[in-house]
Every structure is written in structure tokens, then in C-alpha cells.
Amino acid sequence: MKKLLIALAVLGLLGAGAAYVVYTSAGKIVKTAIEEFGPKVLGAPVTVRSVRLSPFSGKGSIHGLVVGNPPGFQTPSAFELGSVHIWVDYKSLLTDKIRVREVRVASPKVTFETGAHGSNIAALQKNVESFAGPSSGGSSGPAKKLQLDLFDLSGGEVGFSTKLLGSKPITAPLPPVHIEGLGKGKEGVTPGDATKVVFHSIYASVLKAVATVPGVGEAVDDAKKVVGEAAKTANQAVSGITGLFKKKKK
Predict the structure, then answer these.
(1) Label partner for 187 (CA 20 to 30 A): which of 42, 109, 209, 214?
(2) Strands (DSSP E) along 79-222, which ranges?
(3) pTM score, two decimals?
(4) How many Cβ atoms from other residues are within 10 Å of residue 108's Cβ?
């Protein structure tokens, strides 16, 4: 009996130790994944200061996530996301469709830089499009699918940077982005399609903010025209993609 109790105690300690290792290493695994996978999607450097993630609740947070600029742009970064709170349904990781209950981005800072060949945000969008490929419309297939219950971005600001304005960018509030029920249903959506919907929505919000910046003046009329044309393109893209995921009536 005594030996059995000792054995159970040892197993308990080993189990606790394993749980501790999983708990402490989960954040590092996610951090590494973001920094390695992000540049492939965006075509720009991506760094993360830290990730905290509980493997038991599925809740966590990402701190100090910075998306740099594609080649050809001068500002230090395109996006600085102070904190991102995430909640993943861990049980869904064992199924064909991963369920992300929520992603909340608080107080992001965006730098919209214009150049001879367009903006940095437009360049990032093109990179996302190129990586994700054509939208599948939620068609069935062997690959893992995704369901995003809620994506919320709020409290942000966008800085408009161009050589005509000098080195100090003009800032404006960033309209919030709110997406619900992406991939809801049996089929879900591919991670590529989900990425495109989210990024297009953010892109449209950025352009809306930039296009309404007060006091820009005649010196940047050409830049404002570029913004206006790009905004139409972004809005059309968002409408087209989100339309794919509307439930079809039989």
C-alpha cells in the first residue's frame, strides 16, 4: 500500500511537471509561430514581445506585436498592436474546424505611408492576397477549417505619412472593425479566406480614416486621390469576400 501511494505521488508530480512545462512553453511556441509565419503572409517583418497563453482555458494575450513595412517604405512600422486578447476553443483543435471564440485588438497604431507606387498598407494587402490565393467560398476539403466568432479592433489611430507632409505624420482616429460569425456552420472557412476578410476590413477602416483627415490641404491632393481610389477597391473586396460566407437559402 505504501509503495502504491509513493508511485501515485511520483506520477502526480510528473503530471504536474508536464503541465507546468506545457503552460510555460505554450506562449513561446505561439510567439515563434507568429514571427515565422507572419512574414510569409505579409511580406514584411513581424515581431512579438511576449505571448501569454493558458492551455487549460484557451485564453491568452499577445503583447508588443509589430508589423514592419514591405521593401521600399521608410517608416519604422505599418502596425503596432499594443495588446491582442485571444480565446481559442481547445477542444476544437482535435476536430476538422478550429474555433476561435474571440480576437480583440486594443489601441492599435497604424502608419499609412504613401510613395510613388502606392501605400504600404496596399502593399501588405497585395501580399496577403498573393499568399492566401483565390477565395474558396468555404468549400469542403481535407485541410483544417476555421471559425472566428468575434474579431474586434477598437481605440486605434492612424498616422498619414508622406514626403509632402515632412517627417511628422498627421494622426486621426481609426474607425473600429467588428466581425462576427466568420465561418459559422459546418463547413467553416479556410485560414486564408479568414485572413483576407479580416485584413480587408482593417484596410478599409484605415483608408476611411486617412481620407477624412482634416487640414491635409492642397499639398497632398494627389495622395488623397490615391486614398479615395484605394478605398473603393478595398470596400469592393470586402463586400465580395464576405458575400461568399453568407448562408445560402435552399
Answers:
(1) 42
(2) 79-88, 97-106, 109-115, 118-119, 145-154, 156-161, 170-174, 177-182
(3) 0.75
(4) 23
Q: What cell was used for 6?
A: 509513493
Summarize pLDDT for 53-89 with one digit per residue, the tens: 887 788 999 999 999 999 999 889 999 998 899 998 8
Sort 183 into a burial class: Cβ within 10 Å, 0-12 / 13-18 / 19+.
buried
Query: E strand or H helix at 47, and its extent?
Result: strand 46-47
Inter-residue contact 153 to 173 (CB < 8 Å): no
What's the pLDDT tens digit per position in 170-223? 788 999 999 999 998 888 998 888 888 999 999 999 888 877 765 444 334 444
DSSP H stretches of helix in the chain: 2-42, 120-132, 191-211, 221-244
